[in-house]
Amino acid sequence: MDGLEFGPIASLVGTWEGDKGVDVAPGKTVPLVAPYFETIKVEVVGDVTNAGTQKLAILSYHQEVFRKADGKKFHDQIGYWIYDAATKEIHYTLSIPRAVTLMASGKLTASGAIKVSTDTEIGQSPFMQKNAKTTKFEMTVTVNGDSLRYAMTTHLDIYGKAFPHTDVNVLTRK
């Protein structure tokens, strides 16, 4: 990685595939549970310097998620993993074609997991703010060799109530 300090996000580089995903999404009356399979491609971008002093190491990723029931793609996401070696902070950005984008930040936990959550405003279209507003996002990622496990919760205000939309999966590096 060309001498850059990627810290704990270095272990994310590669193409990951998994078919053990479970999506629990909001339904109008009851939660909708959908088993899924996915591919996440994580690549080295390099580094960037902010304001002449902050040096960040950057990875980009593309995540594609498909329902097991019919093989149709139901989620497409792009973003960056960013590491600040000076502060040990990890930043995770995501953008989805539902007109929602966010940044979650955190650090490596004592157990070796990457844990991030939102602490800034979430960018979303007026329609999404009114009908399916994302209020918070949190995710834990653990990499053990060529195995990656994640659990994420996207907190929504939808159908007149709060709903914790969850996704979990275990993936293998190819």
Widest sheet: strand ordering: 1-2-3-4-5-6-7-9-10-11
C-alpha end-to-end distance? 19 Å
How would you sum up the major sheet? 10 strands, antiparallel, barrel
What gross morphology would you assign?
Answer: globular
Taking pLDDT < 50 over at least 5 consecutive residues as the criterion, the unreliable ranges are none
| Residue fraction in strands | over 45%
Work out the number of β strands: 11
Order of helices and strands: EEEEEEEEHEEE
Question: What CATH architecture do you see?
Answer: Beta Barrel
Please compute the radius of gyration using only Cα atoms.
16 Å
CATH class categorisation: Mainly Beta
Count of the separate structural domains: 1
Q: What is the helical fraction, as a range of percent?
A: under 10%
Keywords:
68% strand; mainly beta; globular; 1 helix; Lipocalin; 3% helix
